[in-house]
Design goal:
α2 packs antiparallel against α3. The protein is an alpha+beta fold and 167 residues long. 19% of the residues are buried. The N terminus and C terminus are likely disordered. It starts with 8 loop residues before the first helix and ends in a 12-residue tail after the last helix. It has a three-stranded antiparallel sheet with strand order 1-2-3, with no helix packed on it. Strands 4-5-6 form a three-stranded antiparallel sheet.
Length: 167
Amino acid sequence: MARSRGPGPGADEQAAFAPFRPRRGRAVATASAVATVLLFAVVAVVLPGPAEGGNWRAGDRVFFAGVGVAIALLLWRFASIRAVPTRETLTIRNLFLTRTVSWREVVDVRFGEGDPWVTIELSDTDTVAVMAIQKADAGFGRAEAGRLAALVQALGPSVPSPDVTRE
């Protein structure tokens, strides 16, 4: 009988560098994308054509179905939001932009009361949204924000930014 071993030292590192992904937003976006494609396809099929006394032609039906597919693609993009940490960088894939930042550039992680997602402040005073960690995920979102802050503390700049004052 084989004995199972506990998680090795690599398990903690694997968990620390796991991709950040929203839970609730991803589930809602995926379900909405499927529902949108189905709804627009059904409506495109049942629209009354000239034979049924309506004005909808084949091109109109294709256009209507295409609009449904376009909406579903936008929802899919929202469902694919993530932030992927490595030892050197954080690659942030938001709704429209993907950006890779070095840990040395990140000086602060913010997840304020009114913010829908985490933002990181960079050493060049730029602020970047990390939409993968969302307020809608409640406790999970707060835990993920804490994990990101721990990564920044462990891998971030070793020398404080000249703009940051210590008390």
